[in-house]
Amino acid sequence: MSPTEPWYADGIRFECARSGKCCTAHGQYDRVYLDDDEAEEVAALLGLTLAELERRHCWFEDGWRLVKFADGACGFLDGARCTVYEARPVQCRTWPFWKENLKRSTWKRDVAAFCPGVGRGRRHDRDEIEAIADEASGDA
Ligand code: SF4
Description:
This protein has helices at residues 36-46, 50-57, 90-93, 104-112, 126-136, and strands at 12-14, 58-61, 64-67, 69-70, 73-74, 77-78, 81-82, 118-124. It is of the alpha+beta class.
């Protein structure tokens, strides 16, 4: 690995362990955002209208639609199970490969030491990691 390459240039193994840990409030992570398309998909999965979904499960801040939390966890979490897994938003699908997580110190502290999916499963190569990070930040 050359000194100009990122620390994850050889890839990172990750497979969601369905622990539900990333669905709980931890450190600066305490929000789940739903854009319009995502909210429609979650509503359809739950058999709700958008208005019903928003009334029961969402709150709004600065023009953003957020999922209500209960007892420190996303309201869609039931035990360790995401009840909207098939329609979970980009934010959840792209965990843990968010740009803010790809700083080595942040990864070590806030991801590797926290998420049991790190080090499991398939190795994601650098290009894939960066493509996911772009998707997570809306740059894709
Ligand atoms: S939507 Fe599902 S995957 Fe995303 S934080 Fe909530 S429970 Fe977890």
